[in-house]
Amino acid sequence: MPDVIFTGPEGRLEGRYQPGPRPRAPVAILLSPHPGSMNHPISIALYKTFVARGFATLRFNFRGVGRSQGIFDQGVGELSDAASALDWMQQFNHEASQTWVGGFDFGALIGMQLLMRRPEIKGFISIAPPTHAFDFTFLAPCPSSGIIIDGAEDEVVSGASVLKLVDKLKTQRHITIDHETIPKANHFFEHEMIDLMAVVDAYLDKRGV
Q1: How many whole angstroms separate alpha carbon 104 and alpha carbon 108?
Q2: What is the pLDDT of residues 124-149, one digit of tens each?
Q3: Which of 151, 180, 181, 207 has the most CB atoms less than 10 A away?
Q4: What are phi and psi for residue 131, nearest 5 degrees?
């Protein structure tokens, strides 16, 4: 997993990038929880999953984390960071067969904001989106199909708030929203990582990627 440095809105951004193994490989950008470390276990697990499936895959530190320059910007600047990261990837993958975004917690929020801006994103994985703290009404309409995953014993995000978002998105036409709740899992899936990634793999199998 080569270390990379690329230019973001506030200076350099630090990432890990695995090129695709073949021409026109699909691409995946993976977004991390607050404060934005790409070395969070869920970010690493998602990265390994997409790499194993032959994606050109990037995870990176949001501004102000690790060697990434800038300071935390309440999600506004971090969305710009994610857009810059996707732009950087597309320099090397301009014929990518498809584009995916995945994220956990704060990264799930940024990922779903990013897919509203970037029509090339055709699939998303949103893990424990922070529906308790942020307004997701910007998904009107949600342009891509994807899966939302939460934990049955999440002590941070209420299951009811996640279900409210899922139910709203499921009413929209031309997309399909899957929803899985992992039994016994807390917000960080500390003891259910195997179950979490099994759900992710099953969904990617279902989508044929």
Answers
A1: 5
A2: 999 999 999 999 999 989 999 999 99
A3: 151
A4: -70, -15
Three-state secondary structure of 58-91: EEECCCCCCCCCCCCCCCHHHHHHHHHHHHHHHH
* Cβ–Cβ < 8 Å for 105, 82: no
One-letter identity of residue 111: G
Please count the other Cβ atoms lying within 10 Å of the Cβ belonging to residue 76. 8
pTM (two decimals): 0.96
In a 10 Å sphere around its CB, with 0-12 CB exposed, 13-18 middle and 19+ buried, how is residue 168 labelled? middle
Cβ burial, residue 1 (10 Å; 0-12/13-18/19+): middle
Q: Which two tokens stand for residue 26?
A: 């699909």
pLDDT in the model for residue 36:
86
